[in-house]
Amino acid sequence: MERVTDAPEGRARSAEQARVNDYDRFAEAYAAENEENLVNAYYERPGMLALAGDVAGRRILDAGCGSGALSAALRDRGAVVTGIDASAGMLALAKRRLGDEATLHLVDLSDPLPFADGAFDDVVASLVLHYLEDWGPVLAELRRVLRPGGRLIASVDHPFVAYTIQDPRPDYFATTSYTFDWTFNGQSVPMRFWRRPLHVMTDAFTTAGFRLSAISEPQPDPAARELFPDAFHALSTKTCFLFFVLEVPPSAAGSDE
After folding, report:
1. pLDDT at residue number 17
2. CA dist 171 to 1, 93, 161, 197, 199, Å?
3. Average pLDDT for residues 203-222, to the nearest whole number?
4. Chain centroid, CA 95 distance in Å
5. Cα 149 to the chain's mean position, in Å?
6. Partners of 61 in the beta sheet?
7. Of 110, 151, 186, 220, which is most buried by a Cβ count within 10 Å?
């Protein structure tokens, strides 16, 4: 492990590390890109909504809500949505989208959640877990705030993709980080993600008390075929994200006694 010192170069490294995944720096640009692009608007969000199904009247926590696109879609389908995010900039955009009456909280998923046990029927975690090195505490908290019979619906970078994009390829069976630069509107920003093998993901879910209900590798929305003809074909034939539906067993309340 690298030791961080008080030397100027050590402080410089610390400052650089603090800027990784800093959504406040590029919230507007990211939200604009996310709004209508192929991967988010015509693949990931439709995939999440399809797995969520009929959400009318359900209390849903959008964990890592970003600028609120998924929250808005769930609310339009009749859900009662609460959004949390670690970026104040993204939450400001979500408030602009959802209105002043939206229930939004500035929360880092690595911290305890400010909600009562069993407060929600569903949690959606859209492309957020792969930012975290340790899933254990996060999943325990998400499990806590779900009622018995509730669901966690999550999407992550597909572990096969995260494995193949690195050169040289890492140990597939290890949990490792990888970094790259995203470019939005000419602005380059450093990002860090964590990849782990599939069995480590499913083990983390079951250890937290979830029951695996579904694993999904959906196709993009057919409406995107004419909008993005070349990219649509590529996305239709290659892995991109992996989706999970996890359930809290209905007897969970009794088993905790």
Report:
1. 46
2. 18, 39, 14, 9, 14
3. 97
4. 19
5. 21
6. 82, 123
7. 151
Q: Which amino acid is at 43?
A: Y
CA distance linking residue 106 with residue 91, whole number of Å? 7
User: What are 5's two structure tokens?
Assistant: 């010192």
Residue 190 identity:
P
Token match 């970003």: residue?
A: 66
Element (H, E) at 166: none
Side by side, which strands form the sheet with 241-247? 103-106, 80-85, 59-63, 120-126, 146-157, 241-247, 211-216
- The helix (H) or strand (E) run that includes residue 84 is strand 80-85
Q: What is the mean pLDDT of the chain?
A: 89
Region 104-120 average pLDDT: 97
pLDDT cut 70: percent of the chain above it: 91
Q: What is the pLDDT of residue 240?
A: 94
Distances in Å between the alpha carbon of 108 and those of 128, 131, 186, 188, 190? Answer: 11, 11, 28, 24, 19
